[in-house]
Amino acid sequence: MNQTVVTNFPVTDDVRQALEVSLRGVDELLPREDWTRKLARSAATGQPLRIKLGLDPTAPDIHIGHTVVLNKMRQLQDLGHQVIFLIGDFTTLIGDPSGRNSTRPPLTAEQIKVNAETYYTQAAKVLDPARTEIRYNSEWNDALGTRGMIQLAAKYTVARMMERNDFHQRFTEGSSISLHEFLYPLLQGYDSVALKADLELGGTDQKFNLLMGRHLQQEWGQEPQCVLTMPLLVGLDGVEKMSKSKNNYIGITEDANTMFAKVLSISDELMWDWYTLLSFRSLAEIASLRQEVAEGRNPKDAKVLLAKEITARFHSAAAADAAEGDFNNRAKGGIPDDIPELQLCGAPLGIAALLKQAGLAPSSSEANRLIDGGGVRVDGGVVSDKGLKLATGRYVVQVGKRKFARVTLA
Q1: Which positions make up the binding site for ATP?
Q2: What does the alpha-carbon distance between residue 200 and residue 232 come to, in Å, rounded to a whole number?
């Protein structure tokens, strides 16, 4: 096995600064000594390091929890390294078993194509498109063929595969594990071989797969990549990781007003974790801001700064300013200038039916639940009677703090 060895180069102040940037907010950086040597070599030779992030297009949209690793990519990109945004169009056909307690249903090729078309457009809101290499792992995985797949599978043992926590747990519980799921970490690892990656990023749930890439590179006689895992972002509820299924997420395609308001809804304590993982402010700036809050500054001031930074990243600075104004207006009980205008028929119309037809509630039963919770207003007054019927006229209907509609009822 002809494995390349990282040659020692001087660890300068610039290298130490690059290491500090690399370590910001990380869960693990393995092996740290190898990464320091890679940084030193890059600084001495002027050769950028190749940094890989793979995402499977399992859904058409990504939320800001996904951008934690994208932010790290951007930080390393700004240091002058080559980042590779890898779209796992081939591996999505298998379905990543990481953290799963059952076999994941694979997507069709048509679904993958539709999702992949939007992925990079959204990621480019964080990465610099001009300095990003975009790849699809079908480029080399389609070419493997049956012979290549068998040769790849021979590089790892079933015993070691079963050491993986989710496989071990499912086996112990008697849950099914399909043979094709063993191929997923092998193929993700082979991506690193094909791309000659120096570093691969992922969430903490990806550690096994990332280490597989390091193992396979050694099998192919390459210098093994380092592995950097980032924490999973805690969602709006302050408890669970951000997830669409838990409805505690901020989608990066959401409108600016909604995005701004959702950031302001997080707890004061969670805000500092979000600053570390999502903000592009320096750690020194964040520490100074946190000290100001500890000394009596209103934590909302810091949260507004974070909300404006995140909103501006995915929209614009002007949109972030407008969102702040919209939020303040609503907090004072005001009605936003730009709200949907609808025309409905059927007066006198029950309030639950009106909310459903206006798109302010998904169903009449949910509308009644919102009324019971005091979350529905008509022309500024709280609706408490689920039997309320509205006559012909024009009304401003509000649900919660952020949903409005100006309804003309005939």
Answers
A1: 244
A2: 16
